[in-house]
Amino acid sequence: MLATRGPRAAILAAGAAFLLATSACGTTDKPEDTAAPQVRLYGTDGNMLNSFPGELKDRGNLVDGMKGTTPLTPLTEDFKERLRAVDPDLKDFLYAAEAYDAVVISALAAQLAGSTDPAAIARQIVGVTTNGQRCTEPKACLALARAGQDVEYRGPSLSRAGFTDVGEPATASYATMHFDNQKINDAKTEFVGAGDESGASTKLPPKPKKQQGGRTDRGDGSPLILGGLLPKTGDLALANPPLAAGAALAVREVNAAGGVLGEPMVWIDGDDGTSVAVAKATVASHIREKVHVIIGAGASGISAAVLPDVVAAGRILFSPSNTDSGLTRADDKGLYFRTAPPDSLQGRALADVMLRDGPDRIVVVARKDSYGEGLQETVRAELERAGIGADRVKLLTYEPPEDAQAAPVDFTGLAREIKAYGPEAVLVIGFAESAGLITALDEAGVPIRH
Q1: Which pTM was predicted?
Q2: For a disulfide at 415, which of 17, 187, 202, 444, Cβ 3.0-4.6 Å?
Q3: pLDDT in tens, 417-446
């Protein structure tokens, strides 16, 4: 039954008086609302992959709603189909273009140098991407190189500008990606450019050597031998299929175009294991096999660990996926190159993605290695530049597994610490092992926003 206006007003007034009286007495019978805020997850190139939800097994749905960035150029359907011809089961394309370009650039540099001597190849690599006749396919580029003409290679990952003086991309493209229904939702993917074309090298490489006849003599050291140092095993193994497909496609297409110095280019497979020990053993094997250019490693920390061995042996290390900004300043004697852009560029894109959602408190969790801590610091600096002070950002790290046989990381303590901090955003900088953190957050009762 509805009350009339007069009695109803009296009832409300009496109720208000009662509430004031009880609150004045300091009643504590009612518990405080301590519900944690919903947390949105963010990721990076190490976990924003279609294969990543599988690492969470029956909890793959926890990644739904997760956002992140990764170095990625819009790829043509033709290039994707060529990759699938190499690997019909390919689900991701992360760093496939960079692997392809690393192999093609190495081949062109050797052809222009007229030699497989790593030092001679290294002197040509930056120049292959700048200040010559522009070409986009191995066949056309090799024809120019054989004729003794400088080339300016533009491949699927290197579309805007060439390399800087230190042998890394002057510009980059990043993709903002979203997980929906336990896979990357391509319809939501956005691309943003970064870097400055003016940063590309303007130095002229040594004069190219024109190939005489169908092939040069054996004095050129042919055939050119490339060795893989890619993450076939370990925590970055989920990123190996596109890396391997990109490299294999490039070898196939270079050889279909006549090879290098009149000989088919040779590829010797190799695993970096996402492990320093495994990678060092592979590098030693490649050196014994007289490999000229090593394509890898997958992880920045692995490359940093093996680079002294590669340099001491006078070989080239050319990574398609290293992003640690610290490698820009590596003591490499001019023998280290990469087609992946440094994290100084990715950090800005990643911070922007998070800031769009307006979180008040942010946790950034990273692998305790050069990749994780380097990107973590870059993101922190970008957030600070945007007005998110240290009192609103918590930085946490964890020791990654040493190799594929190591025990899983125990994220229980980190999950509790994150819950106690009460963030609205958690950025996870890691590889396959970072799935364990997401599971631990769920088990700790952290409400993940989908």
Answers
A1: 0.87
A2: 444
A3: 999 999 999 999 999 999 999 999 999 999
